[in-house]
Amino acid sequence: MTTYANSKNKKTLGFDLPLTTVDIVIFAVVNEQLSVLLIKRNSDANEPYPDQWALPGGFINVAIDKSLQDCALRKLSEKTGLNNAYLEQLGSWGNSSRDPRGWSSTHAYFSLIAADVTGTIQSGANAVDVKWANVVGDKLKDTLAFDHNQIVCAAIERLRNKVEYTSLPAFLVSKEFTLSELQKTYEIVLGRKLDKSAFRTRILSAKLVEEVPRYRAGSNRPAQLYTLKSLLDPVIFQRTFKPLSSNSK
Amino acid sequence: MTTYANSKNKKTLGFDLPLTTVDIVIFAVVNEQLSVLLIKRNSDANEPYPDQWALPGGFINVAIDKSLQDCALRKLSEKTGLNNAYLEQLGSWGNSSRDPRGWSSTHAYFSLIAADVTGTIQSGANAVDVKWANVVGDKLKDTLAFDHNQIVCAAIERLRNKVEYTSLPAFLVSKEFTLSELQKTYEIVLGRKLDKSAFRTRILSAKLVEEVPRYRAGSNRPAQLYTLKSLLDPVIFQRTFKPLSSNSK
DNA sequence: AAAATAGTGTCTCTTAGACACTATTCC
DNA sequence: GGAATAGTGTCTAAGAGACACTATTTT
Fold it and tell me: Which residues of B touch A2 (CB under 8 A)?
């Protein structure tokens, strides 16, 4: 049973509390497309949006979650089995109408999952209730529960923005990767081609990757494999990929 | 009296809800220093942190606040009388220990106030309970209630970061300003000098300001006055003020 | 004329992008 | 050798910083 640690506040404070949840937009590159992990809500007609696709997330459990971040990590771990994925706070959404049960606010996070572990996620207990939905244009095609479409759009926008000047896509490739694979990932997220020479100069001079003594073989010249130097923080570049002059006009 | 719209959820959901608040870090340049507006908490010993300085903010009123943003705007208006200041979501902080009353989460915003209206704020009803605290280094000297020092530090970091590549300081100057005044504001926020020539080129080519047919007089050549073209959105520059090479060493 | 600040011009350096070129593997 | 991808070099253009220069006001 859950505890009622705050029950007395109802009286003490003399007013109502909003519902509070945590939701996570989990990104990965699946089949060469930027994708978001969705969970199907259960069929209980007493709950809002039965059988609809939604972001992984749910109520904070004040008995076991020490903090918002802990709650997000718990939900990430429950759905993906991962404990060390990139996780960043995205923002919060709260109003009187987003949840039919009452005034509700959610703390949204976004996470980036390496390409080589995405396959293991769907093979969980109830595989039919989990799917990777492709990002098409700047949104998902599915209609999600609550205001989750809006949250996903904000996450896509944040991701695309940051990819212009950070090394975030390095969290979306496999543990070992070639520079071409990393460039391909940047291109998938951004939705446009990048110049090979400029890309390599930027990545190598930022010193965020490290050669490993192995090569990716193929029907061509083998490519040097790299790993990330730091698994924790993204690198911030001092210029965007796109200079002002080609933006304006 | 406040309503109890969510009362039934207590039973339906079968678990406890965290306390939910909204807090705002209100920045302005006062006496040539970056400053944050603080409110003194009341003396009621039944409430946490009596008589301590804290960020303006408080509980969401589910009866009158339609959304988090509305709640932030209401609190901003209550404390400053302003309805059109720059307001941006900063992030959320939530854990079991930040509020002695129980598991609590706050949605933090930050706001930028024009220099020419900061004077009117302290002359409100209870002036002694309001003050502008200078930012010294990367924090405030005061010890604030709850985890508000932490929130202020995050706000300072966010502001400084964005000032490197956006026009945010344009919201901190008076309605009409000279380029030198705007540059001075950038320098105050960043805590370092900028080159005049490069600064002017950047601001003018971004086309975010507009000449007005007036000049700022002084014991020297009069300076052209400008206004912001758009009062809403900051401009994003494609390069930071500081290039990589001078960072890396 | 001196003081003071406004505003401009010149030069260098860094780095993105375009694009052509060389390198190394499999077939 | 041909196909394919890896990886490099060269040139140009944009924009930041350093810094010297000119401009226009008050005193």
Answer: 14-16
Residue of B9, B110, B164, B249 best to disrupt the A interface, most CBs of A under 10 A: B9
Using alpha carbons, list the distances in angstroms from residue A107 to A20, A32, A35, A48: 8, 29, 21, 19
Tell if the CB–CB gap between A16 and B2 is shorter than 8 Å: yes
> How many CB atoms neighbour CB A200 within 10 A?
14
In A137-231, which ranges are E strands?
A: 139-140, 209-218, 220-228
CB B24 within 8 A of CB B76: yes
Which residues in A lie closer than 8 A to residue B246 (C-beta atoms)? none
B59 near A15, Cβ under 8 Å?
Answer: yes
User: Terminal CA-to-CA distance of chain A, rounded, Å?
Assistant: 61
Rounded to two decimals, the pTM is 0.90
* φ, ψ dihedrals at B157, nearest 5°: -65, -45
Work out the angle at residue B215's Cα, subtended by the Cα atoms of residues B212 and B220, and round it to the nearest 5 degrees.
155
Q: Give per-residue pLDDT as tens, A106-136.
A: 999 999 999 999 888 765 555 568 999 999 9
Q: Which pLDDT tens digit goes with each residue over A194-231?
A: 999 999 999 998 888 999 999 999 889 999 999 998 76
Cα separations in angstroms, B163 against A101, B232, B234: 41, 16, 10
Q: Kindly list the distances between the CA atom of residue B77 and the CA atoms of A77, A204, B161, in Å, as whole numbers in the listed order.
A: 41, 49, 26
Residue B241 beta carbon within 7 A of nucleic strand D: yes
Distance CA B21, CA A72 (A): 19
- Measure CB to CB from residue B94 to each of A10, A68, A93 and give the nearest one: A68
Residues 6+ apart with CB under 8 A from B192: none
Residue A41 CA to residue A50 CA, distance in Å, equals 6
Nearest by CB to B102, from A6, A66, A237: name it: A6
Instruction: Specify the 3-state DSSP secondary structure of A235.
Output: coil
| A220 CA → D4 C1’, Å | 5
What end-to-end distance do the CA atoms of chain B give, in Å?
A: 61
Instruction: Give yes or no for a contact between B42 and B50, defined as CB atoms under 8 angstroms apart.
Output: yes
Q: B114: which 2 tokens?
A: 């024009």
